[in-house]
Automatic annotation (TrEMBL):
Residues 341-369 are annotated as: Disordered. It is an enzyme of class 1 (oxidoreductase). Pfam families: Bac_luciferase. Residues 1-295 form the Luciferase-like domain. Residues 354-369 have a biased composition (Low complexity). Its EC number is 1.-.-.-. InterPro entries: Bact_Lucif_Oxidored (IPR050766), LLM_FMN-dep_put (IPR023934), Luciferase-like_dom (IPR011251), Luciferase-like_sf (IPR036661). This is LLM class flavin-dependent oxidoreductase. Keywords: Monooxygenase, Oxidoreductase. The lineage of its organism: Bacteria, Bacillati, Actinomycetota, Actinomycetes, Pseudonocardiales. One of its GO terms (molecular function) is oxidoreductase activity. The keyword Oxidoreductase applies.
């Protein structure tokens, strides 16, 4: 089971003092947060991709490459790579390069994003979001798996005798998660290819994500990749932690009440009762997170959103100390003890490489027999 954090990279005013970090300060803070994640024993850091204010991570592989040079174990991922408006050729090249720099500690989460105007900025039509996703991903897979590609589609110029460089490390493409908030077509795409499915699992009720994940598991089995409970599932989550619950609630309330996404809406109490958000003690975060398995089955990756809504860097780092020292060790132990032996771990470069080597050796074994 992998545990980590993901960031949307928002630049938000701190409602308690009216200060707003500069873009430079926010970018540097995200790097510091990633380094802290490795320091406290987390497995994954994931960054979003946005091309509009008030967000800063427009170039995820640049940031992740910089973080790769300063870490040793941390898996570097995205919480959204825009498969609709990013050229599949550039995605193939950028993430293969990152793979080499990070010695394989790389995967990515493909998505369509939640900013409509980004489509025309990159010459695309939002009404073609799903067809763009399907076509672009089919090309991306070929670019990583075939050395020479001839290709023609609807949404970009044809390719003739094209080779994407560099080639994936060890000829093993990065593992792909497909992220979705609401689209069964994306769950179907993930299931068809046997990829991972990541449910954002932040702002919507549990029942909504149960339907999406249940559908993905059903289709994963339908396509012959394994049993439904062996499908590769990732979940988001949200927490604000202090040693005492009342301190957490008091400190986080002004951030919640003024957050760009959910501020000025439901009360914090209503929101925490209806969504995965936990504002409380380490034990309360543990208890709430353990319910995710009851709702969705055994899963492979749990990422927490910890640096949103204008929280100062010092506070976020304190949150990561509590998460890494008091929450995640208990979750690891509890979830591992409940996981059946046939449910796989989250794929890694090493496991994917071993599987590819085993598959390549099979014909030779059959011939020898």
């Amino acid at each position: 089971m992998q545990f980590g954090i993901f960031s949307v990279g928002d630049v938000t005013t701190d409602p308690t003092n009216g200060t707003t970090p500069s873009e430079h300060e926010r970018i540097k803070a995200m790097v510091r947060i990633a380094l802290k994640a490795e320091e406290v024993g987390l497995d994954v850091f994931a960054t979003g991709e946005h091309h509009n204010p008030p967000f800063v991570p427009s170039s995820p592989t640049t940031m992740l490459g910089y973080i790769a040079a300063q870490t040793e174990k941390l898996v570097l991922s995205t919480s959204t790579t825009l498969i609709t408006t990013s050229d599949p050729v550039k995605i193939a090249e950028d993430f293969a390069m990152l793979q080499h720099l990070a010695d394989g500690r790389v995967d990515l989460m493909l998505g369509r994003g939640n900013t409509g105007p980004v489509y025309p900025w990159f010459g695309q039509d939002i009404r073609q979001g799903i067809p763009l996703t399907i076509e672009n991903y089919a090309l991306l897979r070929r670019l990583w798996r075939e050395e020479v590609v001839d290709w023609e589609g609807k949404f970009r110029t044809p390719l003739q005798g094209f080779t994407s460089t560099p080639r994936p490390l060890d000829d093993v493409p990065p593992f792909v998660w497909h992220g979705s908030i609401r689209s069964p077509e994306i769950a179907e795409l993930a299931a068809y290819y046997g990829d991972g499915f990541f449910a954002n699992h932040i702002f919507w009720p549990t029942e909504h994500y149960q339907q999406l994940i249940g559908f993905y598991r059903q289709r994963y089995e339908h396509y012959g990749h394994g049993k439904a409970d062996q499908a590769i599932v990732g979940l988001g989550g949200q927490a604000f932690i202090r040693p005492k619950s009342q301190d957490a609630q008091r400190e986080f309330r002004p951030y919640f009440d003024n957050a760009p996404v959910y501020g000025h809406g439901p009360s914090m109490e209503d929101f925490t009762s209806q969504t995965p958000l936990t504002v409380g003690s380490p034990q309360e975060v543990i208890d709430k997170t353990l319910t995710f398995r009851e709702h969705f089955g055994d899963y492979q990756r749990q990422l927490f959103l910890m640096d949103h809504a204008g929280l100062p860097l010092k506070t976020v780092l304190e949150q990561l100390d509590l998460l890494g020292e008091q929450v995640v060790p208990v979750l690891r132990k509890e979830l591992e003890s409940m996981r059946p032996a046939h449910v796989p771990d989250a794929p890694s470069h090493e496991s994917l490489k071993a599987a590819a080597e085993a598959a390549a050796a099979e014909p030779a074994v059959a011939t020898a027999d």
